[in-house]
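Tokens for chain A. Residues wanted.
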């Protein structure tokens, strides 16, 4: 991974996207748990795509080597207290 190609703007975009998507994924995770308990596994599986969305959206926007790793690290650190 070549860190010389990263600019401060890229780091900030990945961090902000990671925080926003982590909050979205946390809310969806609670809905996933409630949906799984109330409606069964088939209805709950419709919400699982949001987790994949967070993992794929950040590298799609930034397009730098290591963006997915850094973005998911931010997502994990934001979701940790919840």
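Reply:
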């Amino acid at each position: 991974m070549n860190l010389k190609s990263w600019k401060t703007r890229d780091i900030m975009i990945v961090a902000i996207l990671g925080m926003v998507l982590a909050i979205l994924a946390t809310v969806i995770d609670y809905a996933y748990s409630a949906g799984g308990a109330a409606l069964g596994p088939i209805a709950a599986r419709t919400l699982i795509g949001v987790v994949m969305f967070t993992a794929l959206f950040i590298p799609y926007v930034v397009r730098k080597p290591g963006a997915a790793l850094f973005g998911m690290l931010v997502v994990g650190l934001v979701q940790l207290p919840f």
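The helical segments are 8-39, 41-44, 49-62, 67-79. The chain has a mean pLDDT of 85.
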